[in-house]
Amino acid sequence: MRPASAADAVNEPRGPILQLAGVTKRFGGLVVLDGLSLTLPRGAMQCILGPNGCGKTTLFNVVTGEFAPDGGEVRLGGRNVAGLSPYRISRLGVARKFQVPGVYPELSVAENIEIPLAAGAGRYGPLSLLGYRPDPVRRDRLLDLCGLAGKAGDKVGEIAHGEKQRLEIAMLVARDAELILLDEPTAGMSGAETSAVASLIRRLRDEEGKSILVIEHDMNFVRQLECPIVVMVRGKIVAEGRYEEVSRDPRVIESYLGKRH
């Protein structure tokens, strides 16, 4: 039986994993999130598109507790977490990946997986890690998931950029996170690397049952995710649907894709 974890707090079998209702965020006189509402079903994936400055990153910061909203509710598994600290929200099973890989370059690929496995087992800090032995089956499963089983002993500083990105995504899963937030996970990648990351993210949803929100600008990558899309403009959601639907929406064409798309 899997040991109980903080993620169990949002692991209720009923209802969406994330609900934002009328969320507003201001910085002085600037309204960055303007009564935004969004629902992510449990075990689903959505991609958030929008021009620079539309509020996408601020939205992630509100969900993770970096910013407290000025209005509205942020619910994880039905619990209103608006205003909680990032530390507490992380312990509730939320994990975020930034554009730059947050990996340990001097450690091996396998060791990078083992550290968050320990955290997922409820062990935090150096002393609690003493004597801890990670589940080798789970570690090897995650190495296979991110396509790095053949490089388990390699130093992370020596592997390719796209491989680092896939490794960090697998590390979020190793933490036993239920809700995963990915901020432009294919930035700086080749076409082949982008496809590999898209495949990994789809497997997280389909095989691991994770709930995923993705911020992205690469339209080819968005197509490969094969998930619903939310389009933001000036702090509001202006369109929702599959890629084929939103790409034909006049508001999206004008505000984001451009008239020549």
Automatic annotation (TrEMBL):
Record's SUPFAM superfamilies? Answer: P-loop containing nucleoside triphosphate hydrolases
- Please list the coiled coil stretches: none
The question of whether Nucleotide-binding is a record keyword is answered with yes
One Gene Ontology cellular component term attached to this UniProt record is: plasma membrane
Similarity-based family: Belongs to the ABC transporter superfamily.
Entry-linked PANTHER family: CONSERVED COMPONENT OF ABC TRANSPORTER FOR NATURAL AMINO ACIDS-RELATED, HIGH-AFFINITY BRANCHED-CHAIN AMINO ACID TRANSPORT ATP-BINDING PROTEIN
Protein name listed in UniProt: Putative high-affinity branched-chain amino acid transport ATP-binding protein
